[in-house]
Amino acid sequence: MQTMSSIFVLAGIAATSFTLALSGALMPGPLLTVTVAEAARRGARAGPLVITGHAILELLLVVAVIKGLGPSLQAPPVIGTISLLGGMILLVMGVDMVRKASTLSLRQETDPDCQKRLGHPVILGFVGSLANPYWTIWWVTIGLGYMTTAKQFGVPGLAAFFFGHIAADYGWYILVALGIARGKTVVSEKGYRIMIRGCGIFLVCFGVWFLVAAFQHLGSETV
Questions:
Q1: What is the model's pTM?
Q2: Residue 109 pLDDT > 60, yes or no?
């Protein structure tokens, strides 16, 4: 009976973690932009590759929070610094996409030089997540709060939390990549370039938004 009870508890942690993760996964942001752009170039396989980079970063963060990093991440100067660095990265990524949009083609997806310039999807998934300050804020609020509960059940509880969370990310972004990949054959070269340019502009807007947030957090400490 004790074993069955533990299984139900861990299943409940995984299920609720899955649901909570959707609150972040369903929101548009840099990771969605990267997934759309990469799925159009590489096909459906870009989805799990991008999320693998995202999952590596989240696993590192979970380990760091377990080791005691959580409370220090909630300080305004830390959030401000994260927002500043993230905004700068988003601006660079967005401007680069807009600048290269007119030279990109759907037929370039197997070109090794093009892939090298844009980076591997796993790396883009890692950087795209790291560049989003609100990803960190989600983790130190919702994520940290639920991890505290899961930690009461030891390593199995934390494992259930993490795998439930990452399952939501994989599920959602694989569906996104499949949808983009299957619709790619009916997208013209012009439409593809417009989509890439639009994604770039989207990243630039996010970058500006995060820089404003950074100065607000950093400025509050100097008043």
A1: 0.68
A2: no
